[in-house]
Specification:
Blueprint lengths: L34 E8 L4 E6 L5 E6 L13 H15 L3 E7 L5 H10 L6 H9 L3 E3 L4 E9 L2 E4 L9 E3 L5 E5 L4 E9 L13
Amino acid sequence: MAKAIPKIGSRKKVCIGLRRNARFSLRKSACTITKGVIHVQASFNNTIITITDPQGRVVFWSSAGTCGFKSSRKASPYASQRTAVDAIRTVGLQRAEVMVKGAGSGRDAALRAIAKSGIEESVQEILLNLKEIVLRSNLYGVRDASICVKGPRYITAQDIILPPSVEIVDTTQPIANLTEPIDFCIDLQIKRDHGYQTELRKNY
């Protein structure tokens, strides 16, 4: 028996069957850029990676949830690494600034994944990484410190040459990733309760 055609304006229930655990991506396809900004937002429940171009326009974003991790696994270091690698490979970044927000457990893992991907940090990003390093000391006055290494290699707080009276709380803190065989040297001055500031090097 033929089905009656519903009249215009009438309502009819439509039931659509979906495959269980089906995943849908609501993100539009990303364009390829070689230089941009990576925003890492690490909370205690999730890690979100957003990539923008130098003008601040969002090009691509990824999160631990969209990468297939669920519940408490979304905040794990492994999920953060996968999320960062997914975003970088999709966009094809070669050079980027990294902006970090949040204190979730996946923050450092995402930074390590970004560093290992071969992306070169800008001077601003290196300074921000240095600001994250916590020192412990009872010194007064000014003390000199330095970093002098040769690439390619991954630079951490452990590479800082400190005076005997100063120690680093977390020596695994990332600083920069050298992808080429170059010399990397930075002179540092440590002052008690003086925060952070940059100075131009004097040439004699």
